[in-house]
Design a protein that fits this description.
With 89 residues, the protein is mainly α. Helices cover 57% and strands 0% of the residues.
Length: 89
C-alpha cells in the first residue's frame, strides 16, 4: 500500500490513504534476547502469585541477580500478555 520508493513522500501517501503516518514510518523494534529471557522467567514466576502486580516479580527477579526495575517488569508483563492474547509464541 505505502511505497517508500514512490514519487510521493510517505507523509503524502498516508494522507491520501487516510492512515496514520506514525504507524508506517516507525517500525516496532524487535524484543531483545535478554527481555525474552526475562519475559519467560516472569511467566514462570507469575502463575504462583496471580495477585502480584509488578513489584513482587521485580523483587523475585532482583533476588535472582537480574538488574531490572519495576516499570520495565510492568512493560514486559504487558508485552507477554499481549503476545499470549495474539497467539504468538
Amino acid at each position: 500500500m505505502i511505497d517508500r520508493d514512490h514519487g510521493l513522500s510517505v507523509s503524502r501517501q498516508t494522507k491520501v490513504f487516510g492512515i496514520s503516518r506514525g504507524g508506517v514510518c516507525c517500525l516496532p523494534r524487535p524484543t531483545s534476547d535478554a527481555d525474552l529471557a526475562l519475559m519467560r522467567r516472569i511467566d514462570e514466576v507469575h502463575p504462583g502469585y496471580p495477585f502480584a502486580g509488578s513489584r513482587m516479580p521485580k523483587g523475585l527477579l532482583q533476588a535472582e541477580g537480574h538488574r531490572v526495575g519495576r516499570l520495565h517488569v510492568s512493560t514486559l508483563m504487558k508485552r507477554s500478555r499481549d503476545r499470549r492474547a495474539s497467539g504468538a509464541a
